[in-house]
Design goal:
single chain; 488 residues; alpha+beta; Jelly Rolls; Immunoglobulin-like; 4 domains; 16-stranded mixed beta sheet; five-stranded mixed beta sheet; 4 helices
């Protein structure tokens, strides 16, 4: 009997779901939106942040906010004039921003902000208490009062009470105060501006700084009785009431403070003790972890450079780079010398650092074209180290720069001319390698032709500031700018 097996039919399972047209459109829109957000984030993260456009926008926003605070101030003609100037500069900043001239926009916004801050100070019965970052080398950060974010510092930043300035191990900065005092923040330091006081009636001006770690140098100016510059640390306070140059360093780990006076004098107090110690020129004292002031000792004076003359120009001819010989006077008792050479005036990151030069001369072979600063200190047989000498500068240039028959005067322009209490901060450009004087004083010209300087103003009212630039062929350019100063 034949047996037949029935074939089972294959099972086919079908499943589906329905997508509405509106849902599909929503999904596509969401994907496009997420893609757009991602692209925008990438643009902001990698292209916009830190760009000239972003810096200009931030400066404009800050200027707008400061101007809005200046609007409701009490009626005072001088303050109103400053507000009008701030409004004009802010409008210029917006115009330059729209034209994609971001550096010019940022500069106008910074100046607008300064004028608004002056107006606010005047409305409170105070004279303008300006503080600015005068020079910046390397990675320098600023944290505003009551803010948590550190921002990249730039030359010309306006500072105020509560702001903190931090330098990395290879960076440095200088602050200029309304009274002409300049504070240099050395590498690896953290400084806070604690208090500012400026009474227009009595002319008393006071600045208080807090050094949280590292080292600073202060160069103070003459003031009326009651004026002073103070630098405090965790366990001490150093104060100068007259013209002086002094350094304060604070070792955070060891809780020790050291004060060195290079010119003038400073007063040092420690802990809760009422006793104050006066430190004179070329003297130093320390405060230990127990807030006890150590005995005052003498500082070894710096060596005196003898050659080459300051601002000396060396020419490279026929493709041959020149050798440069540096020399300085001998320091009695020195066992060796430390020589530093840098392309920047604050020596935040020197290109050459020779700690054990055995003679009072050093020859630099095959020096490439550029501008260089150099300084030297003495190391004594007992281990003491002298101050560094005042930096000198030399330049190495191609002989082609001084071509025969050159009769064109060097370019000379002033980009920033900011009157700052009793002085003016100047930034500009001239021909690279030109000899530049402002009010008869030599001014360093960087390799790209830019220059920065501070010029004290001699009198109240109108001051004429004369610029003279001379190239290697003897051609000369002159500028005469005027600065108006209120009585001080």
């Amino acid at each position: 009997m034949a047996t037949s097996h029935g074939l089972e039919k294959p099972k086919i399972l079908l499943d589906w779901f329905t997508i509405r047209y509106r849902t599909l459109v929503t999904i596509i829109f969401a994907v496009l939106l997420l893609g757009g957000v991602g692209a925008y984030y990438a643009y902001v993260k990698f292209f916009y942040e830190g760009s000239p456009k972003a810096d200009a926008r931030e400066a404009i926003n800050h200027a707008e906010e400061t101007l809005s605070r200046a609007d409701p101030v009490m009626e005072l003609e001088s303050a109103n004039e400053l507000k009008r100037t701030a409004q004009r500069l802010l409008a210029e900043a917006r115009r330059q921003y729209d034209a994609a001239n971001y550096q010019d926009a940022r500069k106008a916004a910074v100046e607008s902000n300064l004028n608004s801050e002056k107006a606010i100070s005047m409305s409170r019965g105070e004279s303008s208490r300006e503080v600015q970052l005068y020079k910046v080398e390397g990675d320098v950060k600023v944290k505003r009062a009551r803010e948590l974010i550190w921002m990249q510092a730039e030359q010309g930043f306006a500072l105020s009470v509560g702001d903190q300035i931090k330098t990395s191990s290879r960076s440095s900065a200088q602050i200029i105060y309304f009274n002409g005092t300049i504070t240099t923040i050395r590498p690896g330091s953290l400084l806070e501006i604690k208090a500012l006081y400026d009474d227009p009636a009595t002319k008393i001006q006071q600045v208080r700084e807090r050094l949280r770690e590292g080292r600073i140098a202060a160069s103070t100016q003459e003031g009326v009785e009651g004026s002073y510059h103070e630098v405090s640390t965790q366990n001490s306070v150093a104060t100068s009431s007259n013209r002086s140059d002094f350094e304060v360093s604070f070792d955070k780990e060891g809780s020790t403070t050291k004060v060195e006076v290079h010119a003038g004098e400073a007063t040092l107090s420690a802990g809760s003790a009422a006793r104050k110690v006066k430190i004179g020129a070329y003297e130093t004292a320390s405060v230990n972890a127990k807030a006890v002031v150590t005995e005052i000792t003498k500082i070894v004076p710096a060596p005196v450079p003898s050659m080459p003359p300051d601002q000396k120009i060396f020419l490279s001819k026929g493709g041959q780079t020149p050798s440069v010989e540096l020399a300085w006077d001998e320091v009695q008792g020195a066992s060796r010398y430390r020589l530093q050479i840098s392309s920047q005036p604050l020596f935040a990151s020197p290109e050459v650092d020779l700690p054990a030069v055995q003679t009072t001369t050093a020859t630099l072979p095959n020096v490439q074209e550029g501008g260089y600063y150099w300084r030297v200190s003495a190391v004594m047989g007992d281990g003491r180290v002298s101050l560094f000498s005042t930096p000198r500068r030399f330049k190495v240039m191609s002989a082609q720069v001084a071509q025969h028959g050159d009769v064109a005067p060097p370019a000379l322009r002033v980009d920033d001319f900011l009157v700052f209490a009793s002085q003016v901060i100047i930034r500009g450009h001239t021909e690279p390698g030109a000899l530049l004087t402002v009010e008869g004083h030599k001014v360093d010209v960087y390799d790209d032709g830019s220059f920065t300087t501070v010029v004290p103003l001699r009198r109240a009212g109108v001051n004429h500031v004369i610029f003279v630039a001379q190239d290697m062929a003897g051609n000369e350019s002159r500028l005469d700018r005027t600065a108006h100063v209120d009585a001080y």
